[in-house]
Design brief:
It holds the Pfam family FecR. It comes from Aquimarina gracilis. The protein is 32% helix and 36% strand. By secondary structure, it is an alpha+beta fold. The chain folds into four domains: 40 residues, no CATH class; 48 residues; 129 residues, Jelly Rolls (Sandwich); 71 residues, Phage tail protein beta-alpha-beta fold, CATH 3.55.50. About 2% of the residues have low confidence.
């Protein structure tokens, strides 16, 4: 009998003849076969409940179907949302395509002519936004920063800032809106300034200022703001606002060491020569300065 037939007969627990039994014992792997046989006798197969496992399988399939349906619904909703986003975006692009925005960088000024030939000069780091459509009937402009206006005569002209609204018919005025600082200067005509729902009328030569939430009314002899001619002028202004303006005009960073930045400053500095400008704001305050690349450090003498 062939070796494999002999082993198969033994595995099937068929009776071996004495010759076959002797031949099986002489196999090289006899001991291994016996050990496998003894171990198999000790093996107890786990009980298997057909109905219980069938129910478990059905539950898992049902749960997977729910997940699949959720994914399908989510995909469907996502597609609807995408369509809505595109539709809303198209709507705003269509109806707001006539909105214009002009921004200036540090140390930059620019002149803008509005549709009615009103002139707006933007100071450094400032921005205006306005709508060109029906401009003659709705002259309204949003300002962030500082700008000088020469308003053409016509219907009411509004300048909207985060601190207040300035309204005129035709005049020349300057508006400055910075953090903690709001100022309107009328150079010609009449200006109405609405601050905290209270309106104030300014005639030529009058100044309305809100400094750290305190209203101050003063006068000026200037016929236009000095910054339009590259010079910043200050009158009894906290030093911190002078330093911030200096940073805007020269695009630098000022570091102050133990300085009283609430101390009032009266004076000016030019926008064309940084050394001369630094002397203008440091000598009156008895300060020294050091320049290092784009940084300027101020300290007491």
């Amino acid at each position: 009998m062939k070796k494999k037939d002999l082993i198969q007969k033994w595995l099937d627990h068929e009776q071996l003849t004495s010759t076959e039994s002797e031949a099986f014992k002489n196999l090289d792997a006899y001991d291994s076969y016996v050990k496998i046989s003894e171990t198999a006798k000790k093996f107890i197969s786990p009980q298997y409940n057909v109905e219980q496992n069938l129910q478990t399988l059905q539950d898992r399939l049902s749960e997977r179907q729910k997940i699949t349906n959720y994914r399908i619904n989510f995909t469907y909703l996502a597609r609807i949302a995408a369509v809505l986003v595109l539709a809303i975006g198209s709507y705003f692009m269509f109806f707001n395509q006539d909105i214009s925005t002009v921004d200036t960088l540090a140390s930059e000024k620019t002149l803008i002519n509005l549709p009615d030939q009103t002139e707006v000069t933007l100071n450094a780091l400032s921005s205006i936004t306005y709508q060109e459509e029906d401009w003659d009937d709705n002259r309204k402009i949003k300002l962030e920063g500082e700008a000088y206006f020469k308003v053409a005569k016509g219907k009411k002209f509004d300048v909207v800032t985060s601190s207040g609204i300035i309204s005129v018919l035709g005049t020349q005025f300057n508006v400055k809106q910075r953090e903690g600082f709001f100022e309107v200067v009328c150079y010609e005509g009449l200006v109405s300034v609405t601050y905290l729902e209270n309106a104030t009328q300014l005639s030529a030569g009058n100044v309305f200022r809100v400094l750290d939430k305190k209203i101050v009314k003063t006068q000026t002899s200037l016929t236009k703001p000095n910054w339009t001619e590259n010079r910043s002028t200050f009158s009894s202004t906290p030093y911190k606002y002078v330093l911030r303006e200096f940073e805007r005009q020269y695009n630098i960073i000022i570091i102050s060491k133990n300085l009283d930045q609430d101390k009032l400053f009266t004076g000016n500095f030019v926008h064309s020569d940084i050394q001369t400008a630094l002397q203008s704001i440091t000598i009156p305050m008895l300060l020294k300065y050091e320049m290092n690349d784009n940084n300027i450090t101020l300290y007491k003498q």
